[in-house]
């Protein structure tokens, strides 16, 4: 059985713990490799490598740091097919979806090619008599990233690209479900000219995460994953004196007003609800048509589309969606569908028990559609993270608005309408981080920042955009007066108003 280890000091190294986690091919259900789970000592080894490499990297001028990312972007494009296939083999999503995953990360790498401009400080001439004052942004030192299984390309790059561009060294702890792509990205960073030790990839589970959270040399931690772990990582990192940004789960609603283009809305729901088997933190899992007539017309359009979804392995280039990530994920999703039925929702399309010919042991769940879902049901309250869409009927706009407002999560939300007034009112009043107006998955591009509100995010700076430059740097402010500007000798008191 193939063993997947770590990437420390610019080299692949085998794991030493003797503990492993299975890496599946979700389409066949087979174990295709075993990934090593790191010990505390292995995390320490990565940190020591990072410590040794970081000062010289931070002293490298920003245009040279940018050039590594220019070359890295070229390599990503050259290797796109290989990288997307590697990702799909472990994650299960279609190759096109995997390309999207990598491209969204690549765009963050393009953004940080502007690091000479992005990391510039501020200067005030004459802040006092012959006094100049300036602020500079210095790297935190060593940063760490802990990432989920669902975007093994994009999310590691959200983190390591700005962190490294700012002059930090980095420890990446990817998901143990699909570790091969992050390791390959680290190899390509070396090929792009990154000095060994600046980017280290350590595979592992809670032991590795806890070692990162308590390591005295790691200054900042970025986390993306489920809400309970995000909350834990945020609290533990903060207690250990680290800055932390931690992003959690979601339950994204799409409100459909009576004046919306319903063909557009139905198509948008298909991509946003079922694409990538619903395993996206920005997936739409709740549709809220306003008014009975809107709901009935929407359902008429949706049902045949959900029934016609083509489900296949990643190698089927016509598939709309692939399997979910593990057998446990499949069982969990099907259990939630059972609960929806038991709690009185109307199951319009049932994806339970779906079997694909030739892939009978794969972790497939068929596209599922519920109508008449109410806020007290588990399928409404819980993030399902599968190809399951719930329709909650609302009588009017205020009732529709109140649903996402009251929900625990606040990652993304969308409104479909032709009414600019309503859309503007919605965007202004809603307590959610990312809003789409006739856009179902409003993921901000690399030069804006990504982050939710409420239980979808802990910490105060978002991923990518200028927020990421702030997160991965510390501000230092210098007040300077040169001898010729000092007229009256030394001063021993704080300046006072006279
Ligand atoms: P997860 O929380 O199970 O795992 C995320 C990371 O935490 C992994 O690296 C994992 O090894 C580690 N981890 C797991 N259990 C841990 C523990 N007890 N202690 C310490 N570390 C632990 O999440 P997942 O299943 O990989 O990813 C899916 C989740 O991620 C969904 O909830 C999804 O909404 C969320 N997500 C959020 C965003 C966002 O930006 N808000 C983006 C993508 C995914």
UniProtKB/TrEMBL annotation:
<dbReference type="GO" id="GO:0006574">
    <property type="term" value="P:L-valine catabolic process"/>
</dbReference>
<dbReference type="GO" id="GO:0006210">
    <property type="term" value="P:thymine catabolic process"/>
</dbReference>
<dbReference type="InterPro" id="IPR016160">
    <property type="entry name" value="Ald_DH_CS_CYS"/>
</dbReference>
<keyword id="KW-0520">NAD</keyword>
<dbReference type="InterPro" id="IPR016162">
    <property type="entry name" value="Ald_DH_N"/>
</dbReference>
<dbReference type="InterPro" id="IPR016161">
    <property type="entry name" value="Ald_DH/histidinol_DH"/>
</dbReference>
<protein>
    <recommendedName>
        <fullName>methylmalonate-semialdehyde dehydrogenase (CoA acylating)</fullName>
        <ecNumber>1.2.1.27</ecNumber>
    </recommendedName>
</protein>
<dbReference type="GO" id="GO:0004491">
    <property type="term" value="F:methylmalonate-semialdehyde dehydrogenase (acylating, NAD) activity"/>
</dbReference>
<dbReference type="InterPro" id="IPR015590">
    <property type="entry name" value="Aldehyde_DH_dom"/>
</dbReference>
<keyword id="KW-0560">Oxidoreductase</keyword>
<dbReference type="InterPro" id="IPR010061">
    <property type="entry name" value="MeMal-semiAld_DH"/>
</dbReference>
<dbReference type="Pfam" id="PF00171">
    <property type="entry name" value="Aldedh"/>
</dbReference>
<feature type="domain" description="Aldehyde dehydrogenase">
    <location>
        <begin position="15"/>
        <end position="478"/>
    </location>
</feature>
<dbReference type="InterPro" id="IPR016163">
    <property type="entry name" value="Ald_DH_C"/>
</dbReference>
